[in-house]
Amino acid sequence: MGAFSIWHWAIVLLIIGVPVFFAVRSATKPSQNPDSLVGFGGWLMLLAIGQALSPFRTLGELFSSSEGYRQLMPLPNGPLAVCGEIVLLLAFALLQVVVLFAMLRRSPSFKRLFLYQWIAIPVVFILDAVWTSTVLGVPMSQVLARDALVAPIASFVVTGIWVAYVYKSVRVRNTFGGLAVGQVTAA
């Protein structure tokens, strides 16, 4: 595989930077009537769609790994390694569903749960890598072969951007039980 050229970095910057710029700008831009920013609209709608799809993405990742699982099964401790990874991914998918239901119920705990989900991305990846390496008795460098870090890092960065939005947005604050800007000054 060749090196990442300057054009690749420019494209990555555009793909990540432009949406981040607009999300941060719209989240921090004061509205004419902040109390009217309630419900699933604007950027929050995109977050809601992404959150609704996230458990399916995790389950899709699980099913796409089935060929790799078949290759691991005949190895000593292979079934244990496979079961451990399946349990980790199912636990993460369950967390994603819990976050989704908190969001749909407009629970005040949504913001905190969304933060936990973000933190769980590297935790699940690290636990999986350590588990697989330990159970199979192979070096970590072999477990992390190829581009194993790309997807978790990208997922962590993109979700981190959404976490920043969730904690800055007036719409999110109003929708999930926080005081609106007008209510803060009146109190």
From TrEMBL:
Keywords from the named record: Membrane, Transmembrane, Transmembrane helix
Alphabetized Pfam families for the sequence: DUF2569
Presence of the UniProt keyword Thylakoid in the record: no
Domain of life: Bacteria
Database matches in InterPro entries: DUF2569 (IPR019690)
Coiled coil (UniProt feature): none
Ranges that cross the membrane: 6-24, 36-59, 79-101, 113-136, 148-167
Identification of the protein by name: DUF2569 family protein
